[in-house]
Structure formats: C-alpha cells, structure tokens
Amino acid sequence: xxxDSTLAQVGKNLREAMKILEDGEPDVGMExxxxxxxxxxxxxxxxxxxxxxxxxHLVHNLIHEEEEEEDEKPVQHRMQNVGEQGHMALxxxxxxxxxxVLNRDRLRKLTTRIxxxxxxxxxxxFRYENGSACFHEDDRDGLVKVCRLxxxxxxxxxxxxxxxxxxxxxxxxxxxxxxxxxLGQHLCSQLGLPLSSLCTVPCNTIFGSxxxxxxxxxxxxxxxxxxxxKLPLLLIANAGTPGAGHTDKLGRLKxxxxxxxxxxxxxxxxxxxxxxxxxxxxxxAATRSDSMTLTPxxxxxxxxxxxxxxxxxxxxxxxxxxxxxxxxxxxKLRALPLWLSLQYLGHNGIVQKIRHATDLSQTLLLxxxxxxSIKAAVGFLFILLLMTLFMYLxxxxxxxxxxxxDGFCVGEKEVLDTFNRWLxxxxxxxxxxxxxxxxxxxxxxxxxxxxxxxxxxxxGTQLKDVEDLEEKIMELVHTMSSTISLRQDFREETHxxxxxxxxxxxxxxxxxxxxxxxxxxxxxxxxxxxxxxVEKINNNLLxxxxxxxxxxxxxxxxxxxxxxxxxxxxGMVTEDVDVSELADTIASxxxxxxxxxxxxxxxxxxxxxxxxxAELQLQKASEEKLMEEGMLRQIPLVGxxxxxxxxxxxxxxxxxxxxxxxxxxxTDVTYSTKAQAxxxxxxxxxxxxxxxxxxxxxxxxxxxxxxxxSESGSSSPAEDxxxxxxxxxxxPLPAPETPHPAEGAPHVxxxxxxxxxxxxxxEEEEEExxxxxxxxxxxxx
Length: 781
Prior knowledge:
Helix 12 (281-284) links the parallel strand 5 (263-267) and strand 6 (291-294). Helix 16 (336-368) crosses helix 19. The protein contains 25 helices and 19 strands. The chain is α+β, with helices and mostly antiparallel strands and 781 residues long.
C-alpha cells in the first residue's frame, strides 16, 4: 500500500506547530522582531510574507498576551490539557482541509464512510438503536433543526406556504424551568416563532424533586393548549439539569408525548452514563426519546469537536429540508475530528474516561459526608454519578459556645450565599485542576459544583486533586466558621466606639464586616466637602492598617462593594483574632489621622495670625518706648549723651510664639530659666496594640496579660512625633495619605522662621542698649 507523503507531512507539521504553541521559546531574532513591532496594535500586511515559525510564535504571544499584562495581579486560567486524543481531534481539522481538495467522487465516498462510521459507533455506545446523526458546532443547533423537522412533518403545507401555514394552529414548544437559560428564546428566534409559542412548565413543588418537571401540570397545560386551538409540537426534557444535574421522569414524559403526539427531545450530561455497563432506569428511558443531543467533546476532553444530535425519522427528504442532513460532501467532514478521536480512544477508552469522572465525583461525596459544616444534599438527591453539589451551612451549636450569634438570623440566607460564593471562588483558585465552579439555585441558594465529566478530561483531574480539594475545603470552612462567629462581636465593638466608628451593613461582603470612621467635622459644612473629608480620612486609615504585620486583610472591597461613603472592609479572620483590639486600633488610628490633618490645616493660619500679632505688639512696644524715653533719646548722638548722663532702664520685653497654643508669650521665663516653657506639658502619643510574645502578630489573642498602651505601636509610623523647639510643637507626623508632604514644608518652615525673626528683634535691641549703657558708664568713670 502506497503511503501518502502529504498526509505524513500534515501530521508532522501539526506536531511541530503544537510544540511551538505549547513551549513558545522564540529564538533571538524572533525576540528582536517582536520587540520592534507591537503585537497588540494591528499593523499593515507584510509585503514579502513571513515564515510559518514566525507566524506561530506570533500566535503564541497573542494567546499569552493577557497573562503577561497581569503579572502584577496573577489570575488562574484553566488551560485545557491537550493530550494525544486532543492532537487527533486537531489533526482531523487539518485533514478535513486536505480532503476537501480531492475529486468529487473520492470525496463523496470518503465523507459518506466517515459519517456512517461515526453515526454507527455513537448509536451503539449510547444505546440509541436505528438512529441518525447530525453534527453541528453550536450544541443548540441540533435542537433547532429538530424543531424545523417536526414543523415540516406536522404542517404538510409548510414546505409550500411557509409560515402562513402556522396561522391555522399556533405551534407550542414545552420546556422546564430548569432548562438552560435562554434556550427557548433561541429556538423562537431561529424559527421565527413568537415567544407565545414557548410554554415553560414549572417543576414539582410538593411531591418529587424540586428540579424535575411536573408531569401532571404538563398534561394539564397540553390539554388546555389543544382546547385553545393550538398544536403541541415538541417537549424538551433534561437528563441532567445544568444547575443541579437532575433527570426528569423521562419514562412518564415519553408516554405523555406518545399520547398527545409530541416530539420528545432529551439533553444533559447524564446521557454520558449510557456508555457504562450499569445504567439507572431513569437514564435508560432516554433511549426511547425521538432525539437527544450529546457533547462528546466536553465529556472526553476533545478540543473543537462538534456536538451530535441523534434522532429517529423515516423521511430523508424532511431531514434534508430541516438541515439535519446535507447533500454537500464538505459538510459531512465535520465528523472527521470525532471519527479520528473515537478510533484513537476505542470503546474501552471512552468508557474509562466516563468511569473516571464518576469515581472522582463519588470520592468527593464520601469525603464531604464527614464534614459537619458541609451539606451535599439539599432537599433532593444532589449526586447523580457525574455531578456533586455542596454548600456551607452554619453550625449554630458550635458557635453559640465560642462567639455571639445574636442577630445573625437577619439576612442569614444572603450571608450564607455570600460565603458559599467565596468558598467556590477560593477553591477554583487554590485547586484550579478540580474545575469547581459556583451555581445559583432558586430554592437552595448558592452552591459549589464539582462536575468532573465536563472538566476532568480537559484539566487532567486526578484523585490527588480531589484530596487537595478536601484539604482546602476543611481549611476554608474553619476560616468561615471563625469569621461568622465573630461578625456580631465585631458589630458590637464597633457600636461601642460610636459615633467615631460606624458599622456598615453589607450582607454580600464575605468577611468580618465593613466599618467607617466618622470624623468630627464643623457644623454647616457642605455635603460634598463632608464626603471628601470622610473619604480622605478613611483612605488614609486603610493605608495605615494595611501596613501592619497581621493576617487580617483590609481592603476597599472592590468595585462591586462600593458604597456612597467610603469604608474599610475587613476580610476573613481566624478564631484567635481579638475583635476588641481590632476595633480599638481602628478608632485610635482614625483619631490620630484626624488630629494630624487638623493640625496641618491650622498650622499656616496660626503662624499667619501669630506674625500679625507679633508685629502689632512690636509696634506698640516701640511707641511706648518713644513715649517713655522721649524724642531726643532716639537721635543717635544726642541719645548716647543723654543716656550717659541719665541712664534709662528699658521696659520692652521679648516675645515667643507658641505654635501649639497659637499665642505670644513673654520671654521673661525663658531668660530666667534658660529654657523655653510650654503652656501644658507635652503628652506622648498613645501607642497601639499590646505587648506581644515573639512571633505573635497584631490583633491576636495573647495568653499573657499585657499593657495595651506599650511596645507594639512603637514600630508603627503612625506613632512618630515631631518636636519644633522654637514653636513648642508636639504633634504626629503627617499621615501617609499626603502624596507629597514635602511640598508644604518650605512654606511652613519659612513662615516659622519669619515669626521667630520678628519675635527676637526686641531681644537684640535690648542687648545692644545694655552694651551701650555699660560702655558709657566705663567712659564716665
């Protein structure tokens, strides 16, 4: 048998391309080329063209472009594990392009064989006898074409009259409330039907599962539509709902459809279990349906593989008119990637992959049963071989002995939804290969879903990942339990510091809570100015808290938690956190920042007023001196002679400016004690925290009694003080919120020096006068 060199070259090129895309190690020349041309901005088409390697490297950089931009904030990306079976699927796309150029006869024979083999294999694997197959890219297209087939079959004049034939009897399509969101609307849009042709059937409310279609109610709705002159057309049932993975009562639904001449279409992940040796009767009933949609690409980890809709219909002309089959050989090549992959895996390989998914789900279920705070069954059977849903529940008995739970019932469901959403997001990041995600159920609320059939093959999930998932669940549950037990205590501690602190109620925040510092602002301040001041102080307070060496996380909460007035969000905490110390620290830091801000704002005004007062007092002292000594003594030569004959003791005193008090004081005390005096003794800035043992972090309980006003605060920049000797100033340094604190320093320092110059002017004049008197006394003697 002659080997086709082109086919061999296609396989070789694919392997080389995959190696470049997966490894992505460009040579030096390629790096230089990429550095010159920005790959983000589209550029003109190269005139001479590029080689394959350069193009593949460009594709690699475009794929990983987002990862390079997010180096500062790493994000977990679930990259599909492309194994050998994945390479076969990718090879199928390359071969389809090659086969499409064959002559028409050879192309027709080859495509017919490929589609026939694939259809036969799928029907045997999934127990669907005497079925035909439609291969489509969008997993909803098969249902659209099936609906078109049923319309052609039920309306005989539809082929000639079109949609006018529907006016005699309006068609009705039935679906469950648990169906995929938007599926019914998509059908009506593609078929050109009004939304009134879509009937949504509620699920059971009293008997049976809350996620199963109510069969009795469906029967009633069908009879009402028939009496109204409508034509029941098709029923969409679930073998594994998208949210909870539950299966409708397919046997009863099939009997009801036969009774009213409806077409029954089934879809869902649980159809994959038809390939196993032992199948439940609820799933086996799906083989009686008129059509069902399979997604083997998701189940087997095959990239870019089409979905398949298996159906039974005896009229090939109607199937062709509905688009379920095609007369174009190229259209049949859609089955080629799946045809290659099924041969590569074999029947045993397909069964093994589905069995592996069920084992992973059952293993996690057994581990979850031992956790008291995790519930894996909420009102109905949550586990159907291929999907495990679980949620975190409050252990009120445990928390009643370790923390306060009063008031937790208010919004309890919303709080649980918030914490379960956080649990799912954390598990998805910490154990990314597990493929867990978060689902919202109408009655149960937020749950974490583990669906290995849809993710295990692509992510390469193994039993070790399930063990890691169990370990992380236990750690996160312990953290959530500690946080919820301390939420009410933190609220009470915040209220104890009222009105300085305000507890912000936000049930959607997964953490200890949110708090806002309320500064004491002047009455009558404009509302916009008040908000700016509150936001400024709380932003600075947040920065100070983030500088502490602690396990407690402080943040703004992100864009989804933005409130009208800015506040500080406290994240998850452990059981050893002292919420009383936490609230005390937030309140004391807020006061320090508020006082520092007020001092900086008032310093310039105080200095300006002090200079004006000093100038007035100096002018007044000069006038008093003139009145006391007379005009003649002010003449330089005459004054000296008069002072020699009749010395005069000057009464003018010096002045010193107290910045802290904003007042002028006499220098008598300064010259008598040789040191400057303050109006009040300087007080040390209170320190934050308590004495801690080695390795103990802030806000943690200590077994040793400690002084809450010592040591730990000495390392914080909030406790540094600045002393200005000339101005008697003792105040905290400007808070780190000021972007450029040095910009205002030259002005304040220059103003202070000017004040000191004016104040000390009289001291220099007095000293000069005393020296002149001494000289005159000595010359007279």
